[in-house]
Write a structure and sequence with these properties.
Shape: elongated
Helix content: 40-55%
Radius of gyration: 14 Å
Order of helices and strands: HHH
Strand content: under 5%
Structural class: mainly alpha
Largest sheet: none
């Protein structure tokens, strides 16, 4: 798997993922807290540095490395 997530994108994914997980675990029960578990997806993609959806769409936020 090639890296297609840049550093700013990675930081935003971690912040969003943690916020969603906080909502799932610690927010007042509303019946919709299960939606917060979607936060696992941005956290995992930030950790591995690759987003499958970006690969399918041909996108990349990772800067081009020049030799």
């Amino acid at each position: 798997m090639t890296t297609n997530i840049g550093s700013i994108d990675r930081v935003l994914r971690v912040i969003i993922g943690l916020a969603l997980l906080w909502y799932a675990l610690f927010a007042a029960p509303t019946g919709y807290n299960w939606i917060g578990w979607i936060g696992v997806i941005p956290l995992v993609t930030a950790l591995i540095g690759s987003c499958p959806l970006y690969s399918i769409l041909g996108l990349s936020t990772c800067p081009v490395k020049r030799a």
